[in-house]
Amino acid sequence: MVFGKGQSADTNGGWQNHYRRMRRWEKRSLDALRNLPESDFQDAIDFSLAYFLWCHSLFEWLHEDGTMDKAELSEKLNRYPVWPLCRDIANRVRHFDLRHRPTDKNWSAFREYLPFESQIADKERHVANIMFDGRKWRIDEAIFAASNMWDEILHDLLNEPRVDARHQGGAP
Question: Which residue, 26, 35, 67, 135, is most buried by CB atoms nearer than 10 A?
């Protein structure tokens, strides 16, 4: 039996496997967020924080896997308003305090009750939000924005002729 980094379930498949794992966290997050208050709020937050952690770390996987130049990838990501949110959430989840030029080191996640939902849909409803850099983001909308960001970047990457053939096997 062969062991090692390339043979481990977490690294086998390179960045494509990491991308698929990120998408699984996206689904878990959105399923939990969609069903508040029936879903446990802490589960919804946990799944969402895990999603942003995986979302942010895809940057390293693409760079370390030799798929994309770090500066070029940074330039592409910096075009998206959701990228600083992903970065700061992932880094605070990992490190507790942000010291290296965060956009908003004091972002805050919270639940919001939608008072008129019960009158419209005959059902109590809550949403989870993040207050980030003076803007309230619904967490599900931030997840959609981050997912679309990566889909656009990867679509561009996979359609460029300079990409190594091992990364051209269709959609990740």
Answer: 26
CA pair distance 146, 129, nearest whole angstrom: 15
CA distance 81 to 167: 27
Cite the DSSP H helix spans in 102-138.
117-121
Residue corresponding to tokens 């003076």: 134
The conformation of residue 163, written as its DSSP 8-state character, comes to S
- DSSP category for residue 136: E
| Burial (Cβ within 10 Å: 0-12, 13-18, ≥19) of residue 95 | exposed
Q: Counting every residue, how long is the chain?
A: 172
pTM above 0.70, yes or no: yes
Query: Which residue is it, tokens 């390179």?
Result: 14
Q: How does pLDDT run across 120-158, given as a tens digit for each residue? A: 556 657 789 999 999 999 999 999 999 999 999 999 887
**CA–CA gap between residue 89 and residue 57 (Å, rounded):** 11
Three-state secondary-structure class, residue 135? strand
Cα–Cα dist 27/21, whole Å: 10
Report residue 134 CA to chain centroid gap.
Answer: 20
